[in-house]
Amino acid sequence: MPFFKPAPWTLRESCDSKNTHKPIIMESNTMPTVGKSQTPFPISTTPPATPTVMASKAHELINEIRTIYTTLNTLSDLSPTPVVNANLSRLVELCIKPYSKDLISHVLSIPGFEPLCIQLRHLCSTAEGLLETHWAERLNSATLANPASPSERELHLRNFIYYQNYLDLTRIECATLEAFLHTPKPTPRNICFIGSGPLPLTSFCILDRYPDAHVHNIDRDQSALSLSEQLAAKLGYIARMTFSGEDVSTMSSKSKDSTAWSDFDVVFLAALVGMDTSSKLAILESLAKRLKPGTLVVVRSAHGLRSVLYPVSHLISSKMRRERELMWR
Q1: Any idea what the CATH number is for the domain that residue 234 is in?
Q2: Cβ pair 272, 195 in contact under 8 A
Q3: Can you give the residue range of the structural domain that contains 161?
Q4: pLDDT tens-place string over residues 84-94
Q5: Residue 3: HSE in the Cβ half-sphere, 13 Å Cα cutoff
Q6: In the chain, how many domains are there?
């Protein structure tokens, strides 16, 4: 669930022209969301004796982020409530402000800040799942025509407070990937979204953009899939959507696939699928063995202080390092 407005979409990796058997990997800068920790974070709350303006701002920012973490971490339930909503909204507000690169680098370099981010990401992930479940149930309980008209459908979805963020992010991603499609008309037909969750808004946005497309939604949470399939039927998307309960992080070369991976033109990997770079790389390597040559893979990631909310994928540097290791074996 994008709690924030999406960051610019960037192409991070592309297919080697000499090796067309690799999928094209793109990284989309998004932002994601809550786990428990009993360990305090040893971040100094006292600025240097003679603090610079930047050092003072950095410590002020970290102190507020840590206060939010402490508040959320003491709650037994991160379902939407005034307290949860207010703290998460403030956290997002802090993380998406246009800070200078120097300030961001300074904040990220302060000892103890990265462990704090790791714990906050787990908290945000839990809160995001609960928020999407809440809204999926709420949208499913509404009375609509069967099937809903496009205008009624959009009006219904706009009740979700972050719907516009999904529209904006999907528009940026689709506009970019269209430049890399190997078809006369740059419109993908078969799309897979891994980590679709209980509220598959990205999949809905994709289907609205590409009227002839089909989206296959994958999630390891069967209850989330059930809610999303029910909502897809209610909104009239079900004829162009399929659903599969799978955990892509456990796929291996010996796994028996229930998904026809070679059928897809584009695969989206949600930001919270693989909570670190090594996990994402393992998933991508497994997918590369299953996808057809030229398949586009869009990997959602975060940058700057948005990494407080979502994991950062250092795919290029990690991929190059791994290739060097293989060369010297």
Answers
A1: 3.40.50.150
A2: yes
A3: 24-31+145-327
A4: 999 999 999 99
A5: 30
A6: 1
Q: Tokens representing 218?
A: 């994958």
Contact 46, 52 (CB under 8 A): no
Residue 50 structure tokens: 């003679």
pLDDT of res. 14 = 35
Cβ neighbours of residue 146 closer than 8 Å, sequence gap 6 or more: 234
Question: From residue 269, how far is each of 27, 74, 206, 279 by CA, in Å?
Answer: 9, 31, 14, 12
DSSP secondary structure letter of residue 3: S
Burial track 157-167 (b if 16+ CB lie within 10 A, e otherwise): beebebbebbb
Q: Whole-angstrom Cα distance, residue 122 to residue 115?
A: 11
9: Cα within 13 Å, side-chain hemisphere: 18
Q: What are phi and psi of 319, to 5 degrees?
A: -65, -45
Asked if residue 154 is part of any domain, the answer here is yes
Pull the structure tokens for residue 191.
């799309």
Distance CA 131, CA 300 (A): 20
Q: Which residue has the tokens 């991929």?
A: 319
218-241: pLDDT as tens digits? 999 999 999 999 999 999 999 999
